[in-house]
Every structure is written in C-alpha cells, then in structure tokens.
Fold this protein.
Amino acid sequence: MRRADFSKPGWHARPTAAYHLMFEFLRLSPSYELARIANKRDLTAEERLNCPSDFADVLATYQLLGNVQRILFETWWKKRGLKVFGNPYSKPSVHNIAILENAQLTTNSDIEFELRHYLEETRSDEGFGPTMLIAIPLNRRKGEVLNEISRLLEQQSTDAEPDKQPQLALMGQRIHKSSLFKGIRLMWFKAAKPNLEYWRLGILSKISKKYSASLDAKGPRKTQNPSEIVERDLLTKLTYRALNKFEAIAENAARGRFPSEATVEQLTFDYPKIRRMTLSRELWEKAEEERLVSIRNQKRNLQSVVTNDS
C-alpha cells in the first residue's frame, strides 16, 4: 500500500495498519461468514436458528465491507475501505494568495510559490472542489466589489455538497498493533492445530514472552518439575483468555466495531473449518498475485515497445 492509496478526491483516511488488521479479523469471524452466505443464498433452518439476535448489524456491516474471502486487501481497500472509513476533507475556505500594490507584492513572498502551494497542498486538503480564482481591486467601494463577486458566483453556482462523514470509524485513538497481530497469529495456530494444548498454542503464537522462553512447545506431556507444572498452567489460562478476547474482537469487527473486545453474542468458532477456508484462500491469493504480476509485466513490456518505436 502507498500513502496515495489513503487519499482520493472527496475522501481521505489516516494511513494505519488497523484497516488491514480489521480485514483479517473479519476473515476469521463466523458471524461475518454467515452474512456472506446469507448474501449469496437463503439460509437453512439450522443457519437461521444459529443467527445471533443482532445479525441485522452484521448484515449491515457486510453491505458496507463486502466479501473479504476472495479479494486482496489492497483491492478491497480501494473498492470498499476508503469509501467506508474515509473522513471528510477540511471545509473549503477563502484564501488570500497575495496582495499587489503598484505592480509589486506587498510582502517578500513569491506569488508563484504561494499559488503552487494552494493548488497542490491546500486544495488537496479541501478535496479538490470547484474553485474560482479572482482578482479583487482594493481601491473600490466594498459594496460594489461584493456585488460584482456575488454576480460572478451566481454565474458559476454549483450545488453545495453536504458534509461527508465516514460510515464506519476505528474505535479509540491508539491501536495496539503488536497485540492484534499476536491475536491473529494465535487464531491461525488454533485453526492449524485445533486439538493442541493451550500452553503449546501460547508458546507458538508468542502470547507471552516470559513463558515462551522458559517452556518448550515440543516438550513431552509429562512435566519435568513442579515449576514447569505451574508455568504450563499459567500459560494455559493466559492463552485461553487471550483466545476469548480475540474471538470477541473478530465478532465485534463483524458489527463494524474495531478494535473492541466488548461482550458480544458471538457464534462458535469452527477452527477446522477456518483452517480449510484459510488454505483455500491462500491458494487463491497466490494465483491472484501471480495473475496481477503478469498483467503488470505485460503493461511494462507494451510501454517499452511503444517508447522504443517512438
């Protein structure tokens, strides 16, 4: 992703990895997956019975963010993310570029620099809306000047756009990226090894630096000493609580709330199913990335041929 991908005419979003993290948590949410199925076909009687009471909120989020299983993040962000999470540009204002007196600038500023800054920086912040550049004589009566400006505006009038607001917003000012990355890694390991003991999952996913360093994930089931029993028990509890926490974050994401670990009426996480979906998606992503690279290479070759011919 490039910084330019977070700013388009009419919208801009603060570049942050949080959007990609939400994207990955949505891929893990069983409620969001059920919304994908409901968007594709009628739910079975059993599926309808399993729907959470706030499933309408999940469906509303799905209508905004769409299918995340068969799309690359960069493509999803450009098609969906920016429009949903984008913030309004700053409200356009009237700007004084420069004042001329006796054919000279009244300040030492360079009018070309000021104008370039306005065109390239200020207008970008304001969303590139229609703007009129005019010269206002200062030795005329104010009322006469305002009347002339009013007539010019009436001749070029455009419908004012309403203030735009993001349809969804991240929760909180600070996003603990490292913790959320650990959560995704923990859920991936749980999907890969659904029957593995929690303390081993905790080591593999590096939930705790302290216990990950002192315990061996490949160690025998029989403990070597009393302290190892205590450490395994503590890491088991820590990993179990962490998994519950990150499952809640995934299910809250399905309701458009991210990151939030608030109590939510969530569906059961079927980790073997998540594993199958993840493997299938990885194969698709590899093929899709190869396809996109091939298209880019073809374009480069074509441009090279055109350049050489010219």
The chain is about 55% helix and 5% strand. Residues 188 and 275 are 8 Å apart (CA to CA).
